[in-house]
Specification:
The chain is an alpha/beta fold. It has 15 helices and 17 strands. Belongs to the class-V pyridoxal-phosphate-dependent aminotransferase family. Csd subfamily.
Length: 423
């Protein structure tokens, strides 16, 4: 049995008061807090082995490179990818946004003829289609909108059910023989709904398309196996999985990474360079890791991945499912409307809501005054808010360090909002 009370004590930031109240942090969907072991790992790297990776022959460079690649292997195990040397499937990026932009840029480069015959599978042209969903974070929506604009491809989307789930009942109509790329969120960052991605992936592959998964809200909360899911690419950020900011990861099937042309250029990604002929680029993942990597942050992200696996993703998922059930009780409070599924089925502990007669920013300030941190705004997902007839909302989201008392503190505060504002 996992002692989640003891785990909570591993997070030093929670041991403080905000506005005279004990801090209740319910904004993990924006960024998670960090356990002491992750904080220590980043600091220890700088104290002991700080050096550039994959360059230099001195001892510190060797140790740094080993720590960097060991961290990559840990993250790889977390998501069920291939870690075998020479067959790696995890690329280090600056975050999920950077990973998704890397893909969109690389697809665009392939559309310009870069990468040779192997890259033609990624090329787009007028008449081709790119499909997303209406539930997407802007980090999915915008890069692929821009890719469509650059290549002349048609931009399409899957609509949502009334409670905000991605619709899968009309896949044959939306994903057609002309569809080349489908990019969809695994878990909605507004609704908390787990997308039924299996039929979407199946249909995408039936028409010869490439499936891209936004795994930002799933890797920290669910047991993930990208091979079992059969996704082609997936992106996520370390800072949402109890790791540092400034680093993320892009998964790609090995054969696809080998065929994909690079998206950024510079040091450590080129095998041979000349003045009078094109460069010869390195094999993945180095091909996609130009420049100096955020090595200390990657090392700490590896510690976070190992820390999560030691807890057990099944245990973590069950703990957060309990918290989600408590959070959903806010729907019983007068004037509170939940944006997303009301049942605690196929969802995580992320719940966005609207309070009748009170602006979300006023709600956020009132809740903050009670020492409770929640998100306010459109959460970088404006189309899904329009689906619910809103421009903004509040959002509470759980992490491994939260407990039932945290949720009950929020529910108590929410019950006072409308009376306070005279709504």
């Amino acid at each position: 049995m996992v002692d989640f009370a003891a785990i909570r004590k591993e997070f030093p930031i929670l041991d403080q008061q905000v506005h005279g109240h004990p801090l209740v942090y319910l904004d993990s969907a924006a960024t998670s807090q960090k356990p002491q072991c992750v904080i220590d790992a980043e600091s220890e790297f700088y104290r002991t082995i700080n050096a550039g990776v994959h360059r230099g022959a001195h001892e510190l460079a060797a140790r740094s490179t080993m720590a960097f690649e060991d961290a990559r292997a840990k993250v790889t195990r977390l998501v069920g990818a291939n870690a075998e040397e020479g067959q790696e499937e995890i690329v280090v990026t600056a975050g999920a946004t950077a990973g998704l932009n890397l893909l969109a840029t690389a697809f665009g480069n392939a559309s310009l003829g870069r990468g040779g015959a192997a890259a033609k599978r990624f090329a787009l042209k007028a008449g081709d289609e790119i499909v997303v969903s209406k539930a997407e974070h802007h980090s999915v929506l915008l890069p692929f909108q821009e890719l469509a604009a650059r290549t002349g491809a048609t931009f399409k989307w899957l609509n949502l059910t009334e409670d905000g789930r991605v619709r899968t009942d009309n896949l044959d109509e939306v994903i057609t023989e002309r569809t080349k790329v489908v990019a969809v969120t695994h878990v909605g960052n507004v609704t908390g709904a787990i997308t039924d991605i299996a039929p979407i992936i199946k249909r995408t592959h039936e028409v010869g398309g490439i499936f891209v998964l936004d795994a930002c809200q799933s890797v920290p909360h669910l047991k993930i196996d990208f091979h079992a899911l059969d996704v082609d690419f997936a992106a996520w950020s370390a800072h949402k999985m109890y790791g540092p900011t400034g680093v993320g990861f892009l998964y790609g099937k090995r054969e696809m990474l080998e065929a994909l042309p690079p998206a950024s250029f510079g040091g450590s990604m080129v095998e041979l360079a000349w003045m009078d002929q094109p460069a010869q680029y390195m094999l993945p993942p180095a091909r996609f890791e130009a420049g100096t990597q955020p090595v200390a942050q990657v090392v700490a992200a590896g510690v976070a991945a190992e820390w999560m696996m030691n807890i057990g993703m099944d245990q973590l998922e069950a703990h957060e499912r309990t918290l989600a059930g408590e959070l959903l009780k806010m729907g019983d409070i007068d004037g509170v409307r939940i944006l997303g599924p009301r049942e605690n089925v196929d969802r995580i502990g992320t719940v966005a809501f609207d309070i009748e007669g009170v602006h979300p920013h006023d709600v956020g300030q009132f809740i903050d005054a009670q020492g409770i941190a929640i998100r306010v705004g459109h959460h970088c997902a404006q189309p899904v808010h329009r689906h619910f007839g809103l421009y903004a909302s509040n959002r509470a989201s759980c992490g491994v360090y939260n407990n039932v008392e945290d949720v009950h503190a929020l529910l108590e505060a929410l019950g006072k909002v409308r009376p306070f504002f005279g709504a």
